Amino acid sequence: MSILLRYQGPAVEDGTMNVYDAAANMTAFSDFVVVAAHKIYGEDVYVKAEVTAFKHGSFGTDLLFEVVGAAAAILPMLPDVVSVATTVKESIELYRFLKGEEPQKVEHREDNSVNVTNNSGNIIVINRPSLQLTLDPKAGKAAAQFIGEALSKAGVDSIDISSEGVRIAQATTNDAQYYHPIGDEDTVTESVTRMGLVIEMLSFKDGNKWRMWNGAESLMYAMEDDDFSGRVNAGEAFRKGDILIRDVRVKQTKANGALKLHRAIIKVHDHKIGLDQPPLDLGE
Predict the structure, then answer these.
(1) How far apart are CA 248 and CA 230, in angstroms?
(2) Where are the alpha helices (DSSP H) in the chain?
(3) For residues 224 and 144, what is the distance between their CA atoms, to the nearest angstrom?
(4) Which range among 108-112, 263-267, 278-282 has the greatest average pLDDT?
(5) What's the whole-number mean pLDDT along residues 8-31?
(6) In 3-state terms, what secondary structure has residue 233?
(7) Which of 32, 75, 81, 89 is buried most, with the most CB atoms less than 10 Å from its CB?
(8) pTM to 2 decimal places
């Protein structure tokens, strides 16, 4: 699918928009749309954003979908252009509706939609992924860049977002103050445990998660050991069934009434070769 972001204003028309601002905005917009896709399809769906069209004051982002592991069961659902576009549209509207503040009340409905009440007592009905996108810290940081920060610059008056040639969202300088992370994540519990984990799927891409078997279940873990990542990038050999002895941090956070669990590998102490098995599928 493709989605287009366009800036308007004197700085855009005369070509004086700062190139570094433009690059930061492209990255932030792509991050925002990728988070939107994850809210719909889950974290096991790998979504790659590519800038495909850079023109005067606008740039397009193509999303490429790839499913891994258990997520293959939802393959027939991908990609749903309407769902991603709708989620982006409703999220942009929700930031403005909430005026940058946390919702006063959220009521979940049986049809996967929610009633969101703002601090003025007004109610808006949106899809659940749209609310999750708006309250996501990474999405909030991205929106603060490509909308809030961009519309605060002299000579940039508004943005338009379109998909398949149809405008789905708009924001102006009057709205800039509303686009920022909404609510903070509070740590509920946090612990670090040393354990052995069996490699099921690893990734050479920075920021991607590894799928590991802990003896009871297969889970995704963020890789935060930079030294070990360097060894991986340098060509350290792996086979399916290898065991890594590592320190794992498990952190539970709460934001806007919802609990979230974060699993991360913070230190790899040992790499034990597993049984003789076919080479591991490294994926991307």
Answers:
(1) 18
(2) 10-13, 19-41, 81-98, 128-135, 137-143, 226-233
(3) 26
(4) 263-267
(5) 80
(6) helix
(7) 32
(8) 0.62
